[in-house]
Design brief:
- The complex is a heterodimer.
- In chain A, 79% of the residues lie in helices and 1% in strands.
- Chain A contains 13 helices and 2 strands, in the order H-H-H-H-H-H-E-E-H-H-H-H-H-H-H.
- In chain A, helix 1 (2-41) packs across helix 12 (276-296) and helix 3 (81-99) runs parallel beside helix 5.
- Residues 328-332 of chain A have low confidence and may be disordered.
- Chain B is of the alpha/beta class.
- Chain B contains 16 helices and 19 strands.
- In chain B, the strands form 4 sheets. In chain B, strands 6-7-8-3-9-10 form a 6-stranded mixed β-sheet, sandwiched between helices.
- Classes of the chains: A mainly alpha, B alpha/beta.
Chain lengths: 332, 493
């Protein structure tokens, strides 16, 4: 009898481990399967030039999601990033055109405005103690409004130098991709190898405990949202470099695509766990990959949001399932 | 003799008021070097408040804190840590998704100069070094969420030691430990004392306090109620100091006659948790279920109540009389805050939620406020619960009153069987006494009680029969007449 108990427990543990590792690696398996399926269905999909396209199109999403990954690991949410990217690029390009500044100043202004917006987010959340969802939702509308007011709802075109940045190559690979990857690696090192990075995890895990051992929680939060704003601006630069124009609807709805990419990459919405590489990187790439593939298959572009919705549902379900699995372990 | 020892900490005339209550009223506390001091008192006596003031989590209104003969200002947790004060919380203050080493060195990572990157190898070797000092083996890179509670607690202790703690406060450290883990913890505490740390040990459990402490300070209603050397006192004296009256009648509750069978489990099994469970509960009977943490007792209770599924066997329920539905059961979870209470709702709402149908007005659609109040006032009177205001939010009640309020909720439902999982966990003596008196209300109404408890005395004195569960199986059954402590403890471990 005793042996039976032990044996059952072993089987149970083995099963749990199996499910957990499947959930953990599941998303990479899906990534590979999707890639193979599209490659079989379309002869144009599995080519170097298309691979470059996928990389290039993923870059702005990866960058904007990288900033939000910090926010989500700390147990907060930032849905103002799309509007931050819009407003900062509008302000940067608008002032440059008006005063005849060169591309370098445009970029600096964009980054400064975006970082400042993120800072304001952080200030409101940290000092007033309002929930991050509410604050950033308010900012989402407000900043978009200011941007539309400045541009009068018109499209703006950035300088040629910025557009060139989006289309120049180093070897076979686009400059933006290399720059994006470099920035992503720096961010990952910052997240996993510095004290501040660990504070981000600590605040996301257990805010009270973090406070109890002397971490300045509100300061950490302030910095996290500032980082998120900075990355939104950066992603805006990358995006206008590729598209060559700032439309009034630029990046609207990107917040939730970014969150989806992050969650698909294994970062928990409950806070305290996650990473940029490979998580957010591959999460964002998977979303771009699927839309790219559907495009080659000739699927109507109106179907994309539907497919995206399905992917997001699956990712959220897996996330909650993972959380449920790990919970009883915590209670032993 | 006391005057010879060096005072390491002195708290003088500490006063703290919260809106509506005076939590601490001129409380003094003395701690000598290399001493293990027991701090006891009922719920709401002010132990936690006093310790939170010391650890900088809340600010005092008045009074002085003197460390090493110097008056110090403690305004934040950081201040208190600078003065060598560390607290091991009852609810552990850890970061479950991070590693053991990261948890220990969170506020003081060893870094390289370049970019202030963390030196991982150093982090791990330091962790190993510090755990070796306590003769412990921990894996520095293991994630804390994968550790058992006892080991998690050790991580918190290691964190305090790594900060060179001179004064270490343990707030109810044993409440969720197994016997073995408890022994290990006591070894560590004694070792720390011998190596120069002073310890303040907060506990409800007298046995533990007498086991490990040298001196006991008692608080009652936010005031000093006295201090005794352990060698010169006994448990009943301390208990009297705590509640201000004698405790002879502690476990005496009225017992009705035992009637017909109301619950029978036949070969109940759940793979990996419990096996071939056969047990019976009769009307008017209190049946104890004794087992260690992790023996399957809680899982069994949840399965009987229907919260979890089981794989084999059956649960048979029978009604006491024709009026009551035999499927109605009452259940008290061991985690009352997470699984029992609606914290942001009022006392009334928490009680009537179990049977809202009976407080509807004539339309049978809206809830009648008047009926609710009538029902609750009756219950409160009948069960002798001291709740001043029925509209008070439950989160602002003390642990004892919260528990009584959950018990009232189930009594309102009038089930045939109550399943109580650690109903007195974390309660002080006087609250326990009140809870026991509720038990007699339950049994007098004809219901049976399945009682799970880690408190041996409670189980022995209240139960008519006791089942012993270990490794998911019932290994023994004792009658009221042949139960004794020793047997129970031996059998289970």
């Amino acid at each position: 009898m005793q042996e039976e108990v032990i044996k059952d427990k072993k089987i149970n543990r083995f099963f749990n481990k199996f499910v957990q590792s499947t959930l953990f690696y599941g998303f990479y398996i899906v990534f590979v399967i999707v890639y193979i399926v599209f490659s079989i269905l379309s002869k144009y999909f599995f080519t170097i030039s298309n691979f470059n396209t996928i990389l290039l199109h993923s870059t702005p999403l990866v960058i904007i999601a990288a900033g939000v990954t910090f926010v989500i690991i700390s147990g907060n949410l930032d849905i103002s990033i799309g509007s931050i990217a819009y407003l900062s690029t509008i302000v940067g390009v608008f002032t440059s055109l008006k005063f005849g500044l060169n591309a370098f100043f445009t970029i600096m202004i964009i980054l400064a405005v975006a970082t400042f917006c993120g800072f304001i987010n952080g200030l409101l959340i940290a000092k007033l103690g309002i929930s991050s969802f509410i604050v950033t939702m308010g900012m989402m509308f407000t900043l978009r409004g200011i941007g539309l007011f400045i541009s009068r709802g018109n499209q703006l075109e950035p300088q040629m130098a910025i557009q060139k940045f989006g289309s120049s190559l180093i070897g076979p690979i686009n400059v933006e991709v290399i720059a994006g990857l470099f920035i992503l690696i720096l961010a990952q090192v910052f997240l996993s190898k510095t004290s501040f990075g660990k504070y981000v995890f600590a605040v996301g895990c257990n805010e009270k405990a973090a406070d109890g051992i002397g971490i300045k929680v509100s300061f950490v939060r302030l910095i996290i949202f500032t980082i998120s704003g900075f990355f939104a601006g950066l992603s805006g630069i990358f995006l206008i470099g590729q598209i060559g124009v700032i439309a009034p609807t630029m990046n609207s709805g990107i917040e939730f695509v970014a969150i989806a990419a992050i969650v698909i990459g294994g970062t928990s919405l409950y806070g305290g766990r996650g990473n940029l590489i490979p998580g957010t990187l591959f999460g964002a790439m998977l979303l771009v990959l699927i839309e790219n593939g559907l495009n080659y298959l000739g699927v109507s572009s109106y179907a994309y949001p539907f497919v995206r919705g399905l992917i997001i549902f699956t990712a959220m379900f897996v996330d909650s399932f993972k959380y449920r699995l790990s919970k009883p372990m915590r209670r032993i | 003799m006391e005057t010879e020892r060096k005072k390491i900490l002195e708290m003088r005339n500490i006063t703290k008021s919260f809106p509506g209550t005076k939590a601490l009223d001129n409380v003094d506390l003395l701690l000598f070097e290399n001493e293990i001091l027991g701090l006891v008192g009922g719920n709401g006596a002010g132990k936690s408040t006093l310790m939170k003031i010391l650890s900088g989590e809340i600010k005092k209104d008045n009074g002085d804190i003197i460390i090493n003969e110097k008056i110090v200002n403690i305004n934040s947790p950081l201040d208190s840590q600078i003065h060598g004060i560390h607290i091991v919380h009852q609810e552990l203050a850890l970061f479950p998704t991070l590693s053991v080493a990261e948890n220990i060195y969170m506020n003081k990572f060893p870094t390289v100069r370049f970019l202030k990157l963390i030196r991982n190898s150093r982090l791990i070797s330091q962790t190993k070094e510090i755990s070796k000092r306590l003769d412990l083996s921990v894996n520095p890179s293991e994630k804390v969420e994968n550790l058992a509670i006892g080991q998690q607690q050790i991580v918190e202790i290691l964190r305090a030691i790594s900060d060179k703690a001179e004064i270490l406060i343990f707030d109810e450290p044993t409440s969720s430990l197994s016997l073995h883990e408890k022994k290990k913890l006591f070894e560590i505490i004694r070792y720390l004392r011998n190596s120069g740390t002073s310890v303040i040990f907060i506990s409800h459990n007298f046995e533990e306090v007498f086991d490990i402490c040298e001196r006991i300070v008692v608080l009652k209603d936010g005031k000093n109620a006295g201090s005794r050397n352990v060698k010169e006192t006994n448990a009943s004296e301390i208990a009297e100091m705590m509640i201000g009256e004698s405790v002879d009648t502690f476990y005496q509750i009225k017992k009705p006659k035992i009637g017909k069978k109301i619950l029978e489990c036949k070969n109940l099994s759940k793979i990996g948790t419990f096996y071939n469970i056969n047990l019976k509960v009769h009307s008017g009977e209190i049946v104890g279920l004794w087992g260690l943490l992790g023996s399957g007792r809680t899982e069994l209770a949840r399965a009987i109540y229907g919260l979890d599924k089981f794989d084999k066997g059956e649960v048979l329920l029978e009604s006491i009389d024709n009026k009551r539905n035999e499927k109605l059961l009452g259940f008290i979870s061991e985690n009352r805050r997470e699984e029992g209470l609606f914290l942001s709702l009022s006392v009334i709402e928490n009680i009537t939620i179990s049977k809202l149908k009976s407080v509807l007005n004539k339309t049978h659609f809206f809830i009648s406020r008047k009926k609710e109040i009538d029902v609750c006032q009756n219950l409160v009177k009948q069960l002798n619960i001291k709740i001043s205001n029925l509209n008070q939010k439950v989160e602002s009640l003390s642990g004892g009153n919260q528990q009584k309020q959950i018990l009232a909720r189930w009594f309102f439902l009038q089930p045939c069987l109550y399943i109580l999982d650690e109903p007195t966990r974390g309660l002080d003596i006087s609250a326990k006494e009140d809870v026991y008196s509720l038990f007699s209300n339950f049994t007098e109404s004809g219901a049976g009680i399945l009682l799970i408890s880690s408190d041996v005395d409670e189980l022995i004195n209240l139960s008519d029969r006791v089942y012993v569960i270990a490794n998911g199986k019932i290994i023994d059954e004792f009658d009221k007449n042949n139960i004794n402590r020793k047997k129970l403890i031996e059998v289970a471990s």
